[in-house]
Fold:
Amino acid sequence: MEDFEEKVKISEAMDTTDVDQNSSSSSSLQIVSLLRQFLAVQQRRAEAYAKLKKGFTELGDSAYQQLCNEITVEFSDCSKEVLALESTFLSPDYCRNDLASLLRSVQVQEKQKLHLTATVQVLKKAGRPSERLVSHENCKFRNQHECVHVHEITEAAGTEEAEADAEYDNAMKEAIQGVQDAVTTINEHLEEVRYEIAALEEN
Structure:
C-alpha cells in the first residue's frame, strides 16, 4: 500500500513538471510571436522611411505633402502597435518588464529619429542662406530690371551671411548626427530582440 501511495505521489509530481514545462514552452512561443510582431512593425517603419526619403527627392510639394500625411498615419499605427506589445509584456501573464523596457527604448529613439529626419528635410528644403533663390516680385521693371536684392557688399553683410551659413551647417550636422545615433541605438535594441528570440527558441 505504501509503494502504491509513493508511486501516485511521484506520478503527480511528474504530471506537474510536464504541465510546467508545457506552460513554459507555450509562453516562450507566445513571447517569440510577440517579438516577431515587433520586428515586423520595425520593418514597416523602415519601409515608410524609405518612401519618405524617395518622395522628398522625387515628388512636388503637393504630392510630397500627401505622402507625409500617409506616412504620419503609418508611423502612428506602428507606435500604437508597439505600445500594445509593451503593455502585453507588462501584463501579469508575461511579467517581462525587460522586454517592455526594450520596446519603450525603441519607441523613444524612433520619436527622436522622426523629429530629426523632419528637421533635416526642412533644412534641405530651405537650403543654405547664401544659396537661396530670391524672388523678384518686389523688383522694379522699367527699361530694365532694377533688382531690390542688389546692394553694396560690405564686410558686415558678408560676415552676417557667413554666420548664417555656419549656423545652417551646424544645425544640419547636428540633425544628421542625431539621426545616425538614433539608428545605431535602434539597431542595437533590435539585435537584443533577435538574441532573445534565439534564446527562447533554443529552450
Remarks:
- The CA atoms of residues 117 and 129 lie 20 Å apart.
- The chain has a mean pLDDT of 83.
